[in-house]
Amino acid sequence: MGTIIQEAIRTAVEKGYRVDDRGQVMSPSGKLRKLGVGSHTGGRAKYYVFNICDTRGKRVPIPVHRFAMYQRYGEESFKEEIVVRHRDCDSLNNKAGNLALGTHSENHMDEPKELRVERARHAASFLRKLSPEDVACLRRDRARGATYAQLGDRYGVVKSTVANIVKGRLYRDCL
Known about the structure:
Layout lengths: L2 H13 L2 E2 L5 E2 L9 E3 L8 E7 L5 E5 H10 L9 E4 L12 E4 L1 H6 L3 H13 L6 H12 L4 H8 L3 H8 L9
Antiparallel strand pairs: 1-2, 3-4, 4-5, 6-7
Helix pairs in contact: 6-7
């Protein structure tokens, strides 16, 4: 998170803005602030934001979840490896019980296992050297007596990869 947002968060606290336990932003006068939706990381996730003017008079969108964690934990929430976790994976749910500080790893572990596995499979698909057809041919060639070394040379992979494919440890979805 950039220092501009960090400074804007500090300014908002100094001005008297607050987040209540329901995740709503209150102005210094106690009025409910209107929230917009933005993506402060440039990624897929959308977050509620509210705008304030920083010390130079420029409007800065502040992610509500980041502001809530700063309000609760102070400078600890700005540490390099720390992220704000949405325990229910709903990036728009800023209720106090749903937010926690943690690492990127902990944040991913909040996601359902099925989603994590699907994302891992999707990522692995870009790293695969063999197509499903190649895998079927490799297994058929092995069943016909080809050695691991011969198959490795033929398909451009090392013998241990051939063994793992034949034994079903790799390319399981091609069984």
